[in-house]
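User: I'm writing a tutorial on reading structure tokens. Could you give me a worked example: one chain, its sequence, then its tokens, then a sentence or two explaining what the tokens reveal?
Assistant: Sure. Here is the example chain.
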Amino acid sequence: MAGYAGRDAVIVGAVRTPIGKGKASGALHDVRSVDLLGHSLRELVARTGVDPAQIDDVIAGAVTQVGDQAANIARNALLGAGFPESVPGTTVDRQCGSSQQAISFAAQGVIAGAYDIVVAAGVESMGRVPMGSNITPGSDPFGAMVQRYPEGLVPQGISAELIAAKWGFSRQQLDEFSASSHEKAAAATKEGHFDNELAPIAGLTTDEIIRPETTVETLSGLKPAFYNPAYEQRFPQITWSITAGNSSPLSDGSAAVLITTSEVAKRLGLRPLARIHTATVVGSDPLYMLTGVIPATEKVLRRAGLTLADIDLFEVNEAFAPVVLAWAHDTGADLAKTNVNGGAIAIGHPLGASGARIMTTMVNALEQRGGRYALQTMCEAGGMANATIIERL
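And here are its predicted structure tokens:
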């Protein structure tokens, strides 16, 4: 991505909290969302040495913008983190891809010359602010949209079941993929691959949800999480294979990424970790909802002028196991290069934070493995997906 006067967008810092269980017993449950985000913002400027007064904007993703996450959490968090009052902030919602979209907006602003230094971040405390709690009784956020889909749309869990059925994935395949996610995440933790990106908080030093002891056998004992007899007649093809074990768990966490130009980075003595090469977003079928990662990957590669063979690492958000498996099947991407340090099934999926969390992990993994290009994509509620390609510098 090269813009006004040849400007580019480079990542010069990336940090995240460990991911906590999104429940009352979780290690981060007592940390308010605004302070959870503020922690990553403080750590980001401390680690990069950037004067926060030089930051032109903070763009933060948050999905459930109600209660603790209402009232423009980006601005509140940066002020709580001690940034000067001159620094503005805005909060965006592209569902699960919110902070990946924040990164895209930040890069676009830098390339266009609207920003010199900008933070893209994200936060979600699913334990304190339950998913869906921003839809109040009696409200109608969908309006005329329902007339376009008279048979009715479905929850994400049912979409995941439909994907598993359409692509013919067995329960065994889903559980094997999920067990592998825990195995890879546990190994990455043990080998210190996350050390550079983690900012411990509230006594939590590593991701809380990873279960090293997870096996296909233990996962096979879990009951279907989304079984609903109301859908049996409409969707007789569903085999009810989606469980808590092959889905991403409720999670708490935040992440932040510092983006600037190569020229500004050089002037400030900052080392660019990666260049944001190409970014895109697509819409997709809202019934299947989670398959947008397939056209998003195809679109971002086409715009980048690259092929699958050029990509050294892939990060595909593990909202549900069949999402990644369907993506790999249709794109032809190599699963051995995908989520090499585990994914959301093991690490967690704090909705608004996940895009920035995954980018932080991907930047580090690309450097640790000496690769050149990495591609990140995320499915999103309502039938959308972001895709971003970065290039290690």
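What the tokens reveal: The mean pLDDT is 97. The first strand starts at residue 10 and ends at 16.
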